[in-house]
Amino acid sequence: MALAVRARARARPLPPRPLAISQQKQLKQGLGCAAGPRSPCGEGLGRLRALLSEKSPWCGAGEAGRVDGVWRGVTSARRRRRRRRGSAERAGFVDVLNQIGVQLDSDKSYSALVYGTSAVVAIWISSIVVSAIDSVPLVPQVMEVVGLGFTIWFTSRYLILKSCNALVRRRWRPSPARRRRRLPPRAGCGCGGTSYSAPPPRLRAPHSIADLSRYSNSSSSSNSAPTPAQPLGPGAENGGGRSRVVEKDPIKLWERYVEWLYQHKELGIFVDVSRMGFTEEFLQQMEPRMQRAFAAMRDLEKGAIANPDEGRMVGHYWLRDPALAPNSFLRNKIETTLDSILAFSQDVISGKIQSPSGRFTSILSIGIGGSALGPQFVSEALAPDNPPLKIRFIDNTDPAGIDHQVAQLGPELATTLVIVISKSGGTPETRNGLLEVQKAFRDAGLEFSKQGVAITQEKSLLDNTARIEGWLARFPMFDWVGGRTSEMSAVGLLPAALQGIDIKEMLVGAALMDEETRNTVDMVVLPYKDSLLLLSRYLQQLVMESLGKEFVWMQWLSVVKLQDLMNIYEHSYIQQLREGVHNFFVTFIEVLRDRPPGHDWELEPGVTCGDYLFGMLQGTRSALYANDRESISVTVQEVTPRAVGALIALYERAVGIYASLVNINAYHQPGVEAGKKAAGEVLALQKRVLTILNEATYGISDLCLVIILYEAIGLCSIFVSYF
Ligand SMILES: O=P(O)(O)OC[C@H]1O[C@H](O)[C@H](O)[C@@H](O)[C@@H]1O
Q1: Where is this region: Disordered (predicted)?
Q2: Is residue 424 part of a domain?
Q3: CB distance 374 to ligand 1 below 6 Å
Q4: How many A from CA of 655 to the centre of ligand 1?
Q5: Whole-angstrom Cα distance, residue 446 to residue 550?
Q6: What is the pLDDT of residues 547-571, one digit of tens each?
Q7: 571, 579, 602, 677: which one is catalytic?
Q8: Where residue 332 falls among pLDDT bands split at 50, 70, 90?
């Protein structure tokens, strides 16, 4: 494509030879219009004049000098004859145009006339040059042979090279499947474009406290390391997976349930771990290790450098309780940011802040990974059916996905608030999304800066861009908050507030859960599966980037939405989970309230749709348990901002504690960085290869152009001589 454009650019007409003043006058008279600068044709003539006065590099400074150097061999009589014939032809040409009704006083006609005249003049000069060359003995024959040879060589070479080029391009643009293998795992796309999930790890991984202790023992030489707990019954390895006998006696299971059910009344959350195969003795053995993990967590909350690899504090807990922040500067930052988020979203919703075309009606969020998954989950879980602003996401660099989002917005683009989210401010996918959306704005004649908002670290590339271009607003992202734990920062709070979600309640829920999980050992939820689609995507990133390090931790399964439990997917899941390879445990998430109060409806006497859902969940859990598949059940009364905040906080804490237990740093991501670096290298190499190929092709095409030009001039000169 670039080649074609370049070739077209190069095939422009040669510069025209200056005409004598008398010829210019003749032309003006022929056009029949005044030469005044303000006359309708003044502009066209001005352009014509400019073109006509251009000096041809082929002609030199003076007419006489040119004649001496180049026109040797052409008789002056012949020249005079040709000039006379040329003038007569031009006058006749204008007459002919007038006869066929071409409006010569329009801009188009002038351009056509200028280009036509230039072409005729160029051919005329070229023919004279060629005639001059032709008059040198032997030169024409040699040039013919060389020209013919080059033409043959070029044609074959160019065609071959072209196909090679196409081949190489294909080779260096890996298919989605290849990309999946080469690039770091990312969570799926919510924008309708290609999405992919991380491939499931192959190694068998610990999936309960019992397993955890085994791994911990092998990875740590600590003297106080506990001995592994025994499963509740005889265990048996099974085809690379595991099978452990769990408590089957209903009375004992009930006792376990009563003993191990955790409930937090204020948050309306219940966690049932009774169907996990751990024992009281095991927990006692784990106690010292757990205490160390909690001590490490306390240090982290006080501002210790919890991410030594990157020399960073880890402060997502301060976001929901600024009093915890280690100094007043940070506390102040958190509070002022929250205030500005609330004020800005209030002003946008009330219409105090508007787009140039009126009230904002939509949000287009551009970001990836930690800068997308939290906002997506919260929107899906909490946004009202008719939010003040509807939200869309671009979370991939798939052009078709981006086009789809922009097309879906249509004219609403004029009232769309674009929130660009990137902690680093330089993530390529996000940058690409921004550039694409900015182009869409330009194409629609809209001014992006009046509708753009940036959420990023201060002084990042994105921050500088937004500042220089004067975007509508900028909100800070803090160095000490990781992308995957940033939902309670501006990243998650601003989009949520703009959708009318009570972000203060989310913060309260998270703070309550933080408080609860700070010291309570039995609230630790270990590796889990989830049944809320977007929560699990969000958690997938949290878990995989935090814990997928020294060993492959667990096998993730695709997950279903709670609402999907009654459809075909649930049936396939039961089949796979109950009878397939056993290297997992399940977390069920149950929501007690079906519908808002007053909206309940019984589809059969005494039975609601939600009762079926409850029955399916219980049945699935029992069927799995009967075949030794363990599970945790998390029950929330209702999906409220407080409950969602609490769930996020619960899993953030669980991941942090788990990381301490197995001695890994939960807060860095060397694998992600390595993947990004490798992807960058591949892209750079691809660019280099294409540049080299293009340059080679361009060089050859330039040469070809000269040869073709030479041949064309030769033909023209024969044609001209004929007349
Ligand atoms: O917020 P950004 O700097 O643009 O990074 C966005 C995301 O990039 C990658 O996917 C990382 O693995 C994530 O941890 C991060 O959240």
Answers
A1: 175-244
A2: no
A3: no
A4: 18
A5: 49
A6: 665 443 333 333 333 333 333 345 6
A7: 571
A8: very high
